[in-house]
Amino acid sequence: MFRKLARSLRAFSRELKRASESPLPTPRPKTPSIGLALGGGFARGLAHVGILKVFEEEQIPIDFIAGTSVGAVIGAAYCGGISAKELEEIASLVRFKHFARWTLSRYGFASNDRMTRFLTKVLKCHTFEELRIPLAVTATDFATGDPVVFTSGPLIDPVRASCAYPGMFLPVNINGKLLVDGLLAHSVPTVPLRAMGADRVIAAYLSAHWVNLNGPRHMFDVIGQCFSIAQQKMSGMWEAAADLVLQPDVRGYSYDAFERAPDLIRSGEIAARAAIPQIRQWLAVQEAPATTPTMASAPIQTSPA
After folding, report:
1. Which has the least CB within 10 A, 46, 107, 111, 183?
2. How far apart are CA 268 and CA 250, in angstroms?
3. HSE of 102 in the Cβ direction (CA atoms, 13 Å)?
4. Tell me, what DSSP letter sits at residue 113?
5. Which residue of the set 63, 69, 111, 141 is catalytic?
6. Per-residue pLDDT averaged across 282-300, rounded?
7. Under DSSP, is residue 6 helix (H, G, I), strand (E, B) or coil?
8. List 141, 157, 181, 243, catalytic entry
9. Nearest C-alpha neighbor of 81 from the set 33, 132, 39
10. Known catalytic residue at 249
11. Is residue 188 classed as helix, strand or coil in its secondary structure?
12. pLDDT by residue (tens digit) across 79-130?
């Protein structure tokens, strides 16, 4: 009996030794989470639809979206389950009048209260908590200039506030605060994506001046051109938080050129397709153990030659 027990103990000891000497399985690397920052640009923002269309076709997973101005509108729709194809169909029908109502006010020339009815009809989700993809919507506190980032609660009023372009649209009152367009605080909302936990951040930047060589058509071109210049000068702040910058060619399109939707969407597709090889590298599963992703020291830009 004791001999049998001794043999069992020796066998058990040998098994323990073999187990301790066997190498542990190499952990598979974690696929980095991807965040997409959609900047503002009025009708030019329809280029964002082209970017989303390509990402869907190429099966690029988007884990977080942050939107400013029209980027907030498109982000709210997409995160709520409206496909890029459906967005393309909506874009072919939408016009400036669906968002704006001219009014007499010392705070602006138009109200975007029509967006409430439009968004109520179009969006599949009306709160952030219902969205299938986490979303951040940016606005700016008019009194303090501080950035305001919405990630919970009702969805429609934050989107309206994000689109309240100063001088054109009236500020939007949310919880006693007057809010204006998010472009003043986060023209391209890459920083909120980092705060949400995105490992890799793709920025969609719509760089286009509001006027051509013939000069401005009206005061809105003057206001828009001033903001466009300021936005370009401050681009380093959001670029520092981006790993990849997509810059669709939207030159020559006016801020209200919604009738040019097919061309604008196409410009987004071109910019996105140029970036697919770089994004594929992020998603490639390597044999080496996972490492903590680091932010690129200089973002890679895709723009027309």
Report:
1. 107
2. 9
3. 0
4. T
5. 69
6. 50
7. helix
8. 181
9. 132
10. no
11. coil
12. 999 999 999 999 988 887 777 666 766 666 666 777 888 999 999 999 999 9
